[in-house]
Amino acid sequence: MTNTATEAPTEPSGPAPVKSPRRMRVDLRQYGILAALAIIILLFEVLTNGRLLMPGNINNLIQQNSYVLILAIGMVIVIIAGHIDLSVGSVVALVGAVAALAMNSWGLPWWAAVLLALVVGAVIGAWQGFWVAFVGIPAFIVTLAGMLIFRGLTLVLLTGGTISGLPDEFTAIGAGWLPPLLGEALDGRDTLTLLLGVLASVAFIVQQVRTRATLRKLELPREPAVSAIVKSAILVIAVMALAWQLSAYSGTPIILIILAVLILLYTFVLNRTVFGRHVYAMGGNLFAAQMSGVKTQWVNFFIFVNMGVLAALAGVVATARAGSAVASAGQSYELDAIAAVFIGGAAVQGGVGTVVGAVIGGLVMGVLNMGLSILSVDAAWQQAIKGMVLLLAVAFDIINKRRSGR
Questions:
Q1: Which parts of the sequence are annotated with region: Disordered (predicted)?
Q2: Is-above-0.85 flag for pTM?
Q3: What is the DSSP letter of 330?
């Protein structure tokens, strides 16, 4: 009889291999946009002999481009989902007219007029969302019709062409500053502005540290430490430089606080909520999203309701900054918002884009406008240059995707 011997399992020789933490690939496109913004700022700072970054010009850059940035925040969600909205400029004009009439002709206080304007924007968004989501008409057609409808209604409301004499509390939304509650320090600079800069920097660093700690605990990919440190240092320097310059002018613009809240809120919505994940899923693959149980009709509906509310807010800000409501308000705002989103890294096909990228794209457009204006470049050439920047940004995105596909 033959005995069958069973071999004992051999122990692995040498120490057990140590898992190396997974690294997240650096978003070169996002860093490229930041680099482009920095290069454009430095270029115009040199060409304008240091006038671009003067405190007054920085304040004007924020206030003059605030409504485009607000529109870009909403537009990036629309574009990520695979749609487009051509009506936002006309909505800005219509809502501005409604707010001005509410204060001057209907006797509403300024805050009630603002609330009414936001409600009107939500109703407009629901109107367009209904046709897109439940009837199935392409957003391009619906919003093109909306652009004509709402511009026409604006002309009907503003029969006199202009409504002026708006309350100071209302105009402060777009052209005012936070009061100097903490007094002055360091050669007359606004202490509150400097303090807000420090608090924003500290909050960003704490958030970055907590995010990396969470990713490390869950053993998820994370950005290389060197890249994260460099990014954080650049942002802190930029925030403190902005606060330093604004503190020497009139302090913190009210609209800057509104923009900061919107950026944080919508970054959270897109990255941390079910609604945000559904928006990305629909833009990436609509059929797969439907098969996964995403209620695409309702998501599309609320995307346009949200766009209507943000367009109304942009209308309030634009009217407040101008100090009056005019029928021609909002001309080409939709093109500026769309350009900002694509320059900021959104994909033409949908499914890709960030709120921060859209804001950076809007700042690129704003710096171009201001720098060219300081250099007294003809308006026609300004339009041509902005068009070329948009074309190059989209071309870069397409070429980058082709290389990734290979």
A1: 1-20
A2: yes
A3: T
